[in-house]
Target: NADP-dependent 3-hydroxy acid dehydrogenase YdfG
Amino acid sequence: MSQTDDSTSDEQGTMPLTESVAIVTGASSGIGAATATALAAEGATVVLAARRVDKLEALADRIETDGGDALVVQTDVTDEDDIDSLVQTVTDEYERIDILVNNAGVMLLEPLERADRSNFRQMVEVNLIGLMNLTHAVVPIMREQGEGHVVNVSSVAGRMTNAFSSGYNATKFGVNGFTDAVRKEVSADGVRTTIIEPGAVDTELPTHIPDDQVLEQFSEMDLPTLEADDIARAITYATTQPQHVDINEMLIRPTGQTSL
Ligand SMILES: NC(=O)c1ccc[n+]([C@@H]2O[C@H](COP(=O)([O-])OP(=O)(O)OC[C@H]3O[C@@H](n4cnc5c(N)ncnc54)[C@H](OP(=O)(O)O)[C@@H]3O)[C@@H](O)[C@H]2O)c1
Model:
């Protein structure tokens, strides 16, 4: 849907997403699943991308039962062919892409000297290169449309470092730098960019921490946490603003989080 005409905003000044097409990566769990659900509830057709296709199909069923529209495209964001095929599938089916939520991510925290180099590589390929490549594939379509919105899920770890987080920090600082530089290239053509920086959110993300001691410390910290829905609401807020409003960055901590 064209969002150029801000006069279609509702009483709260927000824009409906009816007829918008939104791709959400990492939609099989956590923040991605919550975001896809929230955008569908606002009327967007959501394209669910991740590797675990059974979880994507179950989510698509739930969205459709609630009256929404969803398309499942199994995607490994580290695979360039998968990225191109995702974008081709969406443009063949809907002829437009209004919102891209680059949310897929892994957090493989380890002390530097015990770190497995393959974990560095995986974090960089999923959290950063996958996000860069998908943005690269989608921006020309949005520019041609004269509008579009790229939402990149970073982290509080994109702004502040922590011990045992060097690789993860490197990827999320990278996401912030990449996104803000892209903003300077595309904003004049109507394409908006938002960096989302959650603090601790209750999802399966930390369960993949490979280092037993770091995992134990993480569990013992007993941090206050946000729910995935809290981040989905922030993304919905950013993407339903009128076209002339470009929310570039949102840092969202659970109340009481002081460690980062
Ligand atoms: N939870 C937090 O405290 C927190 C805080 C700040 C930022 N974040 C960020 O929020 C984002 C979502 O994380 P989450 O907390 O919702 O964790 P999550 O539940 O573990 O979700 C991660 C998602 O990334 C997907 N993914 C991983 N590797 C992938 C690949 N190669 N290709 C495609 N998808 C891939 C996973 O799907 P498949 O395994 O099915 O592929 C999954 O859907 C991440 O970028 C994370 O860094 C989370």
Observations:
- The pocket of NAP is lined by residues 25-26, 28-32, 50-52, 75-78, 103-107, 126-127, 153, 155, 198, 200-201, 203-205, 228 (CB under 6 Å).
- Residues 6-252 form a domain with the Rossmann fold fold (CATH 3.40.50.720).
- Helices lie at 30-41, 53-65, 80-94, 117-145, 166-186, 212-220, 228-239.
- The chain has one domain: 6-252.
